[in-house]
Every structure is written in structure tokens, then in C-alpha cells.
Model the fold of this input.
Amino acid sequence: MNGGSAAIQFAHRLGQDPLPAAAGPQMAYTLLDVQVNSAAASSSLPLNVALVLDGSLSMRGEKMERVRDAARYVVEQLGPRDVLSVIAFNDRATVVLPARPAGDRSTAARVVDGIVPRGGTELAAGLKAGLDELRRGLHLTGRAISSLLVLTDGRTYGDEQRCLELAEQARRDDLPITPLGIGDEWNEDLLETIAYRCGSHSIFIDRPAAIVAAFGQHITDLRGIVGRAGQLLIETPAETRLAGIHRVAPLIGRVEVLPSANVSEQRFSLGTLMRGETQSLLLEIVLPAVSDGMTTVACCALEWEPLDDMAPQGRADYIISAPVDRYAGPTTVMDGAVKGAVERVMAYKLQKRAWQDVQEGNLVQATSKLRMVATRLLEAGETELAQTVQAEVENLERNGAASAIGTKQIKYGTRGLGRTRSMRAPAGPEPHAEKR
Amino acid sequence: MMIICPSCRAAHVQGTLFCEQCGTSLMGVAPTDDLGQPTGAGGFATLEESSAPSGNGSAPAAADSPSKSISEPLTGKPGEESPSTMPLSNMQERDTGRLAIGSVPTRLRVLVLNTGRLTDWIDGAVLHVGRTDRSANVFPDIDLEADGGQNAGVSRRHVRISRQPDGYYLEDLGSINGSFLNRRRLSPGNPTELKDGDEVRLGNIVLRIVLGGFQRSQ
Done:
């Protein structure tokens, strides 16, 4: 079933359709798709991009070579109305290219080539300089779509809190930060938290060859933004309750709960809306006793801010209703797509708890949860990732600690389970941004 | 009505697919009424399960008592995930310990972690696991030969899995390299209960046990 508006299309699938009549509460899993029309007009606003590049000693060699390639690629993708700045950071930050129109490609390429890896990694210095350059860029462009892309391969020490404060500032100023981590040394918890606070997401790059594609994809994504501050409103009938909501696609993860003035509705952040993108959400809705007929499961709406200041706020409405049949009961087949989504979300949630157990020293509980993650992944047909999880279980039991690379592969692998296989396939020589 | 996780005993509303606490599959677990008694009504049937015989009843049974809300409401705090379960210990406090586990598995399947092979559902009462040896006329129900069982040290008759009224049991048959259940070595001839998600190591082959077809216990 589907509906919505010209710009937004809603669709949903029920775990059971029809639902069984029941004299008590029952769980009604629902996959809700929110799709931005691929024909929606994209923004004509210029881009204001800051590349914040780790210039520490550990980046020397192929990583820095590919970073230079990636920066050159970004320059080629930007137009004369766009603004670019480049910052290199190690123990301190150096603005190697102050915010300026991106038309001068040769200058941009030359300054990137001049970055020489040396010293340690102090992320906060790089972020601060990058945000400052984005603000300068806005003076040049007026209204623009701003983005700070930071790439690091190292673990920053002592300035984590400062990084989070800067992320908060970035959010307030609508200067989103997208962190990219390469290798196995960087602090994925810190980068993910920075991204989360900005309404963005971090990206795991498993090999240097994937850097160029990750940068290129980011610029493509920025060009496809049609709205921002997307908010999903969900209102349930009396005695019906939204017990959980999880993002399933494009990446599995938590959905930020926003404060709501209306007590009967709940609001969730869907972030920026990109042309052609579908955000899938798994709703766990507990229904009261229901009898034969149609029942309303939830009333949904999407609100967003258009990029054009003069345009009115966007809104699209959708009602999820379900047929109820007394004969449905146990013979009703569970929808495969919904079941798969529940399995993958469960794997994601369990591995998150397992890492908490590891941090708290509860290795027995951690390995128990990870074993169950492997089971759920195998059931979901994710054999390769399940074997990675199994290897990490054995590593935990043998060494009493999680491996850096295994942790990242599992965290980002389970998060990427919401993608379709074709989207996740590393397909030939073309690099991919997400490690499976 | 509610569903009690057969592994950790957390309580869930009817229709929940996986235990929020431990991740165990709840598909096919028979719901109980608010007093913890089996109702005879089955839970969800999956595509695989719907094609197999089931004794789960044909229609939901009416609960005798008013429904109870088990899940906590979503909080307004960013980043929080709301639990949709309540530990059984809480329920027991409310219901004076009258909850009961009302279901046992009736079939199983095995995931061979080394190769990622997933067997079909098997509902036999006694299952042998090992590797085929035609010359010795040994044909186990679950054959690990194709998974490299011989090189991995799997015996021809390695373990037996038997279905008892209260669930499945695993027994080492005196194998050369031994059997391990969740990293603990099994004593030969000493059946040990299996739970959904258990890890079984036979030689260097590692299996994951998946239980299903839960029915109310007799």
C-alpha cells in the first residue's frame, strides 16, 4: 500500500496481512518506506565543502596518495559557484586552501599535493578549522549546502570532548560533519557520535582504494538534497502503542527521538531528504484487542524544510491501516521482507549490547550475544558477516579482548545490512565505502 | 496473552518474533495467558514453518483476564531505544510466580559455521551427526562430510541428538576428538539439553543449533 504527496511517497508492509483477531495485545511489525520522488527538483544552491584531511605520519604512502586523488576528484566535481576549503591536521591544523570558489582547479590540486604526512592526530583542531572555513565559505556564497568531510586513520587523544562540542556547534549552525575512518586504528565510537550529533553518519573505508569513491559519493549525495530537517510524526489510536522504531535502510540504526509539543504524537528525525532515496523504518506497534474488520495502526506524516527560503514547509500524510481476520491466526505467513528486517535489526541491537558488555568486562555475556548475532545473521543469509562474528567470538575467548578490525567490521557490517545486496556488492575494481 | 522466551524467560507480547533480551527466535512459541498457562494458540508461522506439521491450534484463544501492556513507552530522550520486553522476574513479582514455560521445540536445523551451510528443518526423534562412510554403511542424518568433516576430525558416528518430551538433547557417542557444547566438553553417553543458538563443536567443525516448531508441553 502506498500514498503521500507529489514529492514524498509512503508505502508499508505489515508483518502479518491480515492481522489475526486477538483478545489481547499483539505486536504488529510494520515496514514503513518514505521515498523522496526521484523527479523532485534538486537544489540550485551552491555547495560549500570543507575537506579536513588527516595529515599525520600514519597516513604516508598509499593512503595519502589516494587522499590526494580523492581531493582532486572532488575539485573536478565542483562547479565555479561552489566553494571549497582544504584543511590538513596532525598535531595542529593547517588551512592549506582557504575557502574560495572551486573554479581554480589547478591551485586546489597543487595545495593538496603539498600535504606532507607528519606528526600525530588531533582531530578537534582539524574540525575547528574546517568549521571556520565553512563559515567563511558562506560569506562568499550566501545560502549554500554546507558539508565538512573529515577523513582520519588515527585515534585522537585528549580532545574527544572538544570534538563533541564542535559537533554540537556544527549542528546548531547547520554545518553537518561527515566522518570517514580508514584502517583499524580510528575511534569509531567517537566518529559515530560526532556524526550522530550532526544528523549524519560515519563511514568505514576498509582500504585506500575506496577513498576516492567515498568522496565522490558524498558530493553526489549533496547534489541530491531536496530538503532538510525531515521529521516523521507518528500518532497512534487510543490503546495502540509505538513500542519501538528503527531505521532499516539505507543504513540500520537508531532513530533520534525529537521533543513533541503534542502529547498524542511522537516525532523522529529523518535528517536530510535526498532525491530518489528511500528511508525504511521498522515500526514495532503493540495493538490492543482487535476484531474482524479494518483497524488503524498509525497515522504518519513527514514534515521537512525546503531549501528554498520562500517555499512553504513541506508535509505529506499517510495512514497505516490493516485488515483483521479471525481466521488469520497461526497459519498466516510472516512477510519475508518484514521478518528479514526484524532479524537484521535484532542482529544490530545485539552486537551493540555485546560491545557494551566487552567494555564492562562481561566477556561471557558478550560472547553469548555475539553467538546469537551469528545465528540471526546466518538465518538472514548473511554468511560472510556471520563468520566474521564467529571469528571475533573466538578471538574474544582466546585473547579476552575484541580486535579493532573485527569490531569495526561487525559494527559497520550490521549497520549496512539494510542495503540491498546489489548496493552492498563491492563490484569489481570500483571501490566501495562500506566494509561488509 | 504473552510469549515467554524459552531461553531467558523474558515476557513479550504475542506476535513478537525475537526475544529482546537474548535474541532467541520466538517464532512458533505458544503464547500463554496472563497467568502463564499455555493457551493452545500458536504464534507466527514462517514460510518454512507453515509447510511443516504443527500442533499449535488453529485460532487465537481468548484471554480470561484483561490484557496487560508489557512494553514501556518510548522516551523523549534522543538516542534511546525503548525496551519492548519486561524481564520475567518482574512479571513473577506481579503474578506471584505463576508464569510457566509452556512450549518445547519439535524440530531443529543446524548451521555449519565453517561453511555457512544451513540444513533443512529436521523433525525426527533421533538424529545422528557424523560423516558418511559407505564402506561401513554409515549414513548419518546430518552428514558433515561435505563440510570437510574427515579432515576436521569428525567421527562417523559423532553425536546423537534426541527429542525428549521436554526438548532436544545432545549426546557424544564416544567420538575420538570429543564434542563441545558452548565450549564445554561433553562426557560420552551423557545427554545434555540443547537450547536455541547453542554452539556445538565436533572436532574442528562448529555447528549452531536452531530450534523451531515450538509446541505446548504435555
The two ends of chain B are 19 Å apart (CA to CA). Residues 35-101 of chain B have pLDDT under 50 and may be disordered. Residues 1-104 of chain B form one domain.
